[in-house]
Amino acid sequence: MTVQTPRRYKASDFKSDINPIWCPGCGDYHVLLSVTRALAEMGTPPEDIAVISGIGCSSRFPAYTNCYGFHGVHGRSLALATGLKVARPDLTVLVMSGDGDGFSIGGNHFLHACRRNVDMTYIVMDNRVYGMTKGQPSPTTEPDWDSALSPGGTGLSPFHPLVIALASGANFVARTFSGDIRNATRIIVEAVQHPGFSFVEILSPCVTFRPDEREWKNMVHPAAVEPTDDPARAARRIMTDDGFNVGVLYKGRRKPFAGQVAAEAGDAAVFDEEFAL
Amino acid sequence: MSGGDIATVGELLAHAHAMELEAQERYEFLARQMETHNNRELARLFQTLARVEGKHAREIEERMKGMDVPEIGPLDFRWEGAESPEALDLGDMDYLMSPRRALLLALAAEQRAHAFFAGLLERTADEGIRRFAAEFAEEEREHVDRVHRELRKYPEEDDRRHEDMDPAGEG
Ligand SMILES: Cc1ncc(C[n+]2csc(CCOP(=O)(O)OP(=O)(O)O)c2C)c(N)n1
Ligand code: SF4
After folding, report:
1. Strand-by-strand arrangement of the A221-222 sheet
2. Closest to B91 (Cβ–Cβ): which among A7, A30, A209?
3. Is A98 in the pocket of ligand 1 (CB under 6 A)?
4. Domain segments of chain B: what residues?
5. Cβ contact (<8 Å) for A11 and B70?
6. With CB atoms 3.0 to 4.6 Å apart as the test, which of A74, A264, B34, B165 could cross-link to B43 if both were Cys?
7. Which residue of B has its CA nearest to A151?
8. Per-residue pLDDT in tens (0 to 9) along chain B, 171 residues
9. Second CATH level (architecture) for the domain A22-273
10. What DSSP string describes B1-16?
């Protein structure tokens, strides 16, 4: 038994006093448990962590933690987080998003954040629906998902976030399930500790608009293979899996981008010069 | 249910305490959640269950005084999942949940807690651990009985779906 004494933080040290207003049963509650446990496990002080988000039910996340946070605009969390991390490389930056926020309106930022490989962790709570705006299909929704707002389904091919992250240069790619708190906690710790841009897709049921997703707990299974550092191999595996494989799928060795500002961070004169008309 | 690696009385107390505390915090959290969603009857029920677990946690704290109780990290507890066996799963909730359904979940949680200590009692030969495990198993059995008694107040499943004023998917 690993007993680490004395521990600096408990998971509750990373929770704010604000009551989440997510629907009871929403997978995002589990994600909050996993993230706060992962932060406790790592022992980084709350004031050295920034939690950034866009808009959506999942993007309410920063308010529910005790870290610094910014609830930004829809689809722009990665742009904001990139600026923050480059200016303040000492901070641990977590970006919390949903499949609508991250892959629709924020899709282009996703590609370039992977490509830039700035050292931060991007967690997308994927429920294959727009929860906040009452159930429209998202880029990851199955083509035949029939609902009042998409009768007969969209018929469109779903977006494949893990493959796109790989192809765009993310340095760490993993999938986990919100209800498997132990696995999710471990993966978040690993993602944060891995250098560069880490992308974690968390399958997180929207029990209100996708009650069928309550079944996910019986569908997920551990990835049968060890993570690889070969993107082509990882892509082949991901393309051929059933979408319910959970585990770390890729751990790359690319050097993170730090930007030039880092060396002069805090020196206001440098910025004045840069923006002088 | 796991628990086999508990090697000292201190570790057992750490687990028992974490179990009660997590159950208390979870019920308190659920009570607030149900208040937010205006299910007041369930909020009251969860508050009551939180008080029971809290009382038990305080009793264990008394037992811990002067003992060598280790701090255990969130990933290192010896239960099967990441959550203590006595905590209700947040994923099982529903804003229209009936008290009967909530009590059935509470019953399952108490039964898991009982199985945790009873299993440990069966596996371990250490006299000190056996003494505490037997005591905690008995307390959990009493909790199981208490929930059974509560359940008698709600003999029928009460489906509240028809009360949903804002049904999903009809926007
Ligand atoms: C610029 C802009 N466009 C559209 C919206 C409306 N809007 C709010 S949240 C959302 C989608 C949220 O979906 P997702 O990111 O999957 O989060 P979830 O609510 O499912 O967690 C949309 C389209 C907005 N707030 N701002
Ligand atoms: S609408 Fe869906 S995603 Fe939003 S809080 Fe409710 S269950 Fe969660």
Report:
1. A68-71, A49-53, A92-98, A120-126, A197-203, A172-177, A245-251, A221-222
2. A30
3. yes
4. 9-159
5. no
6. B34
7. B169
8. 344 579 999 999 999 999 999 999 999 999 999 999 999 999 999 999 999 999 999 999 999 999 999 988 888 899 988 889 999 999 999 988 899 999 999 999 999 999 999 999 999 999 999 999 999 999 999 999 999 999 999 877 765 655 666 667 554
9. 3-Layer(aba) Sandwich (3.40)
10. ---TT--SHHHHHHHH
Mutate to test the pocket of ligand 2, among A55, A57, A61 (most ligand atoms within 8 A of CB): A57
Q: Which residue in chain B has the smallest CA separation from A32?
A: B90
> pTM for this one?
0.92
Place of tokens 């003494």: B131
Do the Cβ atoms of B92 and B106 come closer than 8 Å? no
Cβ within 8 Å, pair B74-A211: no
Return the number of other C-beta atoms located less than 10 Å from residue B107's C-beta: 17
Cβ–Cβ of B169/A209 closer than 8 Å?
yes
Interface of B with A (CB under 8 A): 5, 7, 11, 25, 30, 32-34, 36-37, 70-76, 78, 81-83, 89-95, 97, 168-171
CA atoms within 13 A on the CB side of A87: 12
Nearest CB to A209; choose among B82, B97, B168? B168
**A1 min Cα distance to partner chain B (Å):** 7
Angstrom distances, CA of residue B21 to CA of A4, B15, B17, B103, B123:
20, 10, 6, 19, 25
pLDDT tens by residue, A139-153: 999 999 999 999 999
Task: Write down the ipTM of this complex.
Answer: 0.89
Residue A2: which of B73, B82, B171 has the nearest Cβ?
B73
Q: What is the pLDDT of residues A165-182, one digit of tens each?
A: 999 999 999 999 999 999
Q: What would the pLDDT profile of A93-142 be if each residue is shown by its tens digit?
A: 999 999 999 999 999 999 999 999 999 999 999 999 999 999 999 999 99
Query: Which residues neighbour B2 within 8 Å (Cβ) at sequence distance 6 or greater?
Result: B78, B79, B80, B116
A42-91: per-residue pLDDT in tens? 999 999 999 999 999 999 999 999 999 999 999 999 999 999 999 999 99
Which amino acid type is present at position A249?
Answer: L
Domain ranges of chain A: 22-273
What CATH topology corresponds to B9-159? Ferritin (1.20.1260)
Q: For ligand 1, say whether the CB of A46 is within 6 Å of any of its atoms.
A: no
CA pair distance B74, B62, nearest whole angstrom: 23
Distance from C-alpha of A204 to C-alpha of A248, rounded to nearest angstrom: 17
Residues in contact with ligand 2 (CB, 6 Å cut-off): A 22-23, 26, 28, 57, 127, 131-132, 206-209
